Amino acid sequence: MNRSGRTAQFSFACRVTLTAAAVLALAGCAGHGAYTKEHAERSKMRQNALKSEIQAQMANQQYLAGDLEKALKSVDNALDMNKESPESHVLRGRILLELGSLELSRQAFVQAAKLNPKNVDAAYFQGILSERAGKIDDAFSHYEQAMKLDPANPQYVIAAGEMLIQRKDTEGAKALLASRGTDFAQNAGFRQMQGQIAMLENRHADAADLLLEARLLSPDDLNIQEDLARAQMSAKRFADAQLTLQQLLKAKNNEGRRDLRMSQARCLMALDRLGEARTALLALTNEPEGVNDIQSWFDLGQVCVRMGDQHRVRIASARLVAIAPDRSEGHLLRAMHHRMNQQWQPAMDAVNHAVKLSPNDPTAYSLRSLIAQQLGNTEQSQQDLARAIELSNQIDAGIANVPTP
């Protein structure tokens, strides 16, 4: 081949080589561009996820500090960057729950459950919302789901048990607790619920024992201590109840609570510490809230009857008749006052009025039995005494719908 031919062939080869190189270069540039774009998108997603997590952590800290408005803003920022986080939706729901926005709270928990059906908090807090709305069956279903998702947490078992109790299914609640008894034998809330069930079944001594165990497991839980005091009083363990109430009244935010002081006064009455009981009841009736407190005035009158304090019996009876003429307490005290003065017929008139107003009150029948005996009416005295015993037994058994003075 001559020189010009070789030159032309070489030139063509060079063009082919250059063209191939250009194609490869272009292909390489195109591939690198797609890779760079995908990498950039992934990097942005990672950055958003990280920023979202930081915002969510900030929101949680603000929530725990009680700054709910700031917490809501922070968690909304977190969700703007990552809407697929069930944990952020749960946190948003909890914040909204605290703010009282119940429907928005429910929507947040529902969304969290959609994103992660195994999120136990989403199930549990839906139960709380249903319970607040009075939807006990729905609440039980959510608590039961939470219990299945996290079987090691006694909180969910207790919540489910409480719903069964509200449905008046104490047998179901007992069966639920029995099925987990070995797992949570040392849990204070578990023992507390067992005690509450015993109270509902009028097993007051058992209730007091169970609640005492609960208090030993959680000495600082004031709710357990209040349940314990009620159980001890119902079991007639008044000395124990007095000590429990004494401790409760020393606790922060309990100072001066009228309900606890009333219970303490009743314990003192039962223990025949009448002077202390009278002092406590005088304080209660002299307070603004005590002016129309029927129970305080009646208890004061009863203590004064036992102490022979006729003056205060008369004052208490007059006060009760004035504030509650259609209730039996004032007329009972009036009958007691007449009896203290041996005014038998006025005493009988007053107690008859009390029986008419409260025909299922054993105290009224007991008092009328005593007055009838003084008037020589033995038959009525025996009948009234028998009726008083019958009603008292019904009250002790928890089967009588009768007021307890």
Provide a short characterization of the protein structure.
79% of the residues lie in helices and 0% in strands. It contains 20 helices and no strands.
Round the mean pLDDT to the nearest integer and report it: 88
CATH topology of the domain at 186-255: Serine Threonine Protein Phosphatase 5, Tetratricopeptide repeat
Q: Span between N and C termini?
A: 132 Å
Gyration radius from CA atoms, angstroms: 38 Å
Name the poorly predicted regions.
1-31
The number of E-state strands comes to: 0
Globally, the shape reads: elongated
CATH architecture of the domain at 186-255: Alpha Horseshoe
CATH class of the domain at 186-255 equals: Mainly Alpha
Give me the CATH superfamily of the domain at 186-255: Tetratricopeptide repeat domain
H/E series: HHHHHHHHHHHHHHHHHHHH
User: How big a fraction of the residues is strand?
Assistant: under 5%
List the total number of helices. Answer: 20
Give the biggest beta sheet: none
Tell me the structural class: mainly alpha
